Amino acid sequence: MSRADPADPARVFRLPVRVYYQDTDAGGVVYHGAYLAFLERARTEFLRSLGFDIGRLAAEGLLFVLHRVELDFLRPALLDDALVVTAGVQALGRSSTRFVQSVEREDGGVAARAVVSLVCVSAQRFRPVSIPAPLRAALQPWMDRMADQ
Predict the structure, then answer these.
(1) Structural domains in the chain?
(2) Strand order through the sheet with 96-105
(3) The whole model's pTM is what?
(4) DSSP string computed for 73-128
(5) Active-site residue flag, 25
(6) Which of 8, 25, 53, 72 is flagged as catalytic?
């Protein structure tokens, strides 16, 4: 797993993922729904590398809910492929954040690209709340880096 480091020249968090049989359809091609799981895993590990555990945030009454996904499928990923799933911050609002992500193949091709918008909500009322200041401060350098690209 990659460590989140905004000084990293790659400017994005990178998570290695292997394609298992459960991720594929009958033809051995990654099923479209599996890409969403890969993307979520990378975002979760990105936040964990910054010191924020999704489970602990939920226990404290904060959830990040999916608001919008734009997902472009560019090249197929196949059974047993070694992939790298990336996550970077494109925008950061008061209660929302937008991630840019990709699923990259070992041969250098991009299997999929995504823009994922999340909203921080109260676990009790499911109403938007402000992203906690420490999390905002941890994400901010990543947003600045992404804006440079």
Answers:
(1) 13-147 (3.10.129.10)
(2) 13-18, 82-92, 96-105, 110-122, 62-73
(3) 0.89
(4) E-S--BTT-EEEEEEEEEEE-SSEEEEEEEEEETTS-EEEEEEEEEEEEETTT--B
(5) yes
(6) 25
Pair 109, 76: CB distance under 8 Å:
no
36 within 8 A of 104, measured Cβ to Cβ:
no
Predicted pLDDT at 6: 43
- DSSP H or E stretch at residue 65: strand 62-73
CA distance 3 to 49: 6
Q: What is the largest CA-CA distance in the chain?
A: 46
Q: Residue 39: which of 92, 100, 90 has the closest Cα?
A: 100
d(CA 129, CA 149): 29
- β partners of residue 24: 30
pLDDT in tens, the chain (149 residues): 454 544 454 478 999 999 999 999 999 999 999 999 999 999 999 999 999 999 999 999 999 999 999 999 999 999 999 999 999 999 999 999 999 999 999 999 999 999 999 999 999 999 999 999 999 999 999 886 555 54
